[in-house]
Specification:
This protein is an alpha/beta fold. The protein folds into 4 domains: 9-128, Methylthiotransferase, N-terminal domain (Rossmann fold, 3-Layer(aba) Sandwich); 143-261, Transcription Regulator spoIIAA (2-Layer Sandwich), CATH 3.30.750.210; 264-381, Transcription Regulator spoIIAA (2-Layer Sandwich); 386-445, Beta Barrel (OB fold (Dihydrolipoamide Acetyltransferase, E2P)). The protein has helices at residues 18-33, 57-69, 84-97, 113-121, 168-171, 180-192, 220-228, 248-256, 273-278, 285-298, 317-330, 357-381; strands spanning 9-14, 37-38, 47-52, 79-83, 103-105, 126-128, 150-154, 156-157, 176-177, 197-201, 209-211, 217-219, 235-239, 263-265, 303-310, 334-339, 386-394, 401-404, 410-414, 425-433, 437-445. α7 (220-228) packs parallel to α8, α8 runs parallel beside α10 (285-298) and α11 (317-330) runs parallel beside α12. The mean pLDDT is 94. The structure holds S-adenosyl-L-homocysteine, iron/sulfur cluster (SF4) and FE3-S4 cluster. S-adenosyl-L-homocysteine is lined by residues 55-56, 159, 165-166, 168, 203-204, 240, 242, 267, 269, 307, 309, 338, 340-341, 343.
Length: 448
């Protein structure tokens, strides 16, 4: 294969969580600031950045098959950079195993991507998985002006919780909060560029702490209240939160901050205290349920969302049944569920009593059926409501525009294209419900 030279065009492909999507955008902006341009659809980019996820086994395998598929028909290939959490966890292994990878860059070092591109173009080794003391956010260029209705904004990164199954504390490092002023400035830039909704991101976003411009110490609720005062911003969301960091002030904010949407992703992982303990979750089923009660007191219509792992080592039928019961009791609006995947270097990978693949499959099927039933029930419970929908894309059929309800449901609005466009907020009557979307019609046009 011919070795790649100085790239002029690029494409960033992000996998995994929303923070990776955010990081991917930031890498793209940085390459653009260096004079590269994003390859159009169908065009062959000179540089491909695979922004990877390490959370489960298949995710890493996917990276290797993606690398293979980047080979072009004429035998040449683009310059290939592997970024993200697989890069952090397996940097040198990737360089060894995939000879066609030119650059490996970890999540805390991607501000050095332009230098690494120059090194790779000169034929030098370009690997950087440092966790530098100086934050990448101090050196990244300002946000680009591309109009995006709903934008992500990373406010916190890393995790100190060390759940026994999870790689994130190793790939993303210790919990770090971005400073207040940097967040407010970035939020303003996003709103100036057309964002109407901002989702604050963090691996444990509700662990965010900082000082406001007057030097007062603040938690995530303080930051949310400051953003609530930002003209032009219509909606605020945040994800992912840990049950143990749901401070009183944050719960209170759900009751009285108008722009804070009634949606909360609060993973519990399992319903059995024995398994929660083995997972090192440091909350119990009961403390989680009591927390939900307190949130529902201030915001009765809140849509709850969660993550679940089935087949954690030692999980018995009774343990699994406790998870099913919890799902029935909570009535989640939405939830993700995964088969346990042993990750190298995590304590759970060395535990006894691994659950067989067949049992995991069976449990996942049962759990997903229960979750979907809950999603349908939640969506049906919303029918008849007239609510604000923020349009963010065109629909599949003529005349349709699709947007999000306050409860993060996708709402397909009929006959919308004539008078509205993406970025508009409409009042919509919710009429039909499926597991993954709601159908509705325009009630009145809200002020844009
Ligand atoms: N910080 C977030 C979760 C980040 S990872 C939190 O604690 O809520 C996203 C989800 O992936 C987790 O909530 C968990 O359900 C799942 N997950 C993480 N490690 C896993 C593993 N080894 N096997 C299967 N699922 C896993
Ligand atoms: Fe992983 Fe647990 Fe940290 Fe979430 S809280 S990122 S599951 S270690
Ligand atoms: Fe995956 Fe890393 Fe996010 S492992 S889920 S990309 S923090």
């Amino acid at each position: 294969m011919t070795s790649p030279t100085n790239p002029k065009t690029f494409r960033v492909k992000s996998f995994g969580c929303q923070m990776n999507v955010y990081d991917g955008e930031r890498m793209g902006e940085m390459l653009a600031a260096q004079g590269l341009s994003e390859a159009g659809e169908g065009a062959e980019p000179d540089l491909v950045v695979l922004n990877t996820c390490h959370i489960r086994e298949k995710a890493a395998e996917k990276v290797y098959s993606d690398i293979g598929r980047l080979k072009r028909e004429d035998g040449s290939r683009p310059m290939i950079a592997v970024a993200g959490c697989v890069a952090q966890a397996e940097g040198s292994e990737i360089m060894r195993r995939a000879k066609t990878v030119d650059i490996v860059v970890g999540p805390q070092a991607y501000h050095r991507l332009p230098d690494l591109v120059a090194k790779a173009a000169a034929g030098e080794e370009a690997l950087d998985t440092d966790m530098p003391a100086r934050s990448k956010f101090d050196v990244l260029p300002g946000r680009s002006k591309s109009r995006r209705t709903s934008a992500f904004l990373t406010v916190q990164e890393g995790c100190d919780k060390f759940c026994t199954y999870c790689v994130v504390p190793y790939t993303r490092g210790a919990e770090v909060s971005r400073p207040w002023a940097a967040i407010i400035d970035e939020a303003k830039a996003l709103v100036d560029a057309g964002a109407r909704e901002i989702t604050l991101l963090g691996q444990n976003v509700n662990a965010w702490t900082g000082e406001d411009e007057a030097g007062r110490s603040q938690g995530l609720d303080g930051l949310i209240r400051a953003l609530d005062r930002l003209p032009g911003l219509a909606r605020i969301r945040y994800t992912t939160s840990h049950p143990n960091d749901m401070a009183d002030g944050l719960i209170a904010a759900h009751g009285d901050v108008e722009k804070l949407m009634p949606y909360l992703h609060l993973p519990v992982q399992a319903g059995s205290d024995r398994i929660l303990k083995a997972m090192n979750r440091s909350h119990t089923r009961d403390s989680y349920m009591r927390l939900l009660d307190r949130i529902r007191v201030v915001r009765p219509d809140i849509a709850l969302s969660g993550d679940f792992i089935v087949g954690f080592p030692g999980e018995t039928d009774e343990d699994f049944e406790a998870t099913m019961e919890l799902v029935r009791e909570v009535r989640y609006a939405h939830a993700f569920s995964f088969k346990y995947s042993p990750r190298p270097g995590t304590p759970a990978a060395d535990m006894d009593d691994h659950v067989s693949a067949a049992v995991m499959d069976e449990r996942l099927k049962l759990l997903q059926a229960e979750i979907i039933a809950g999603q349908v029930a939640f969506n049906q419970g919303c029918l008849g409501r007239v609510t604000q929908v923020l349009l963010d894309r065109v629909g599949r059929h003529p005349g349709q525009l699709v947007g999000k309800s306050p409860w993060l449901q996708s709402v397909v609005v009929e006959n919308a294209t004539a008078g509205s466009s993406i970025g508009d907020m409409l009042m919509v009557e919710l009429l039909t419900a499926g597991p993954n979307s709601i159908g509705g019609r325009i009630a009145t046009r809200a002020a844009a």
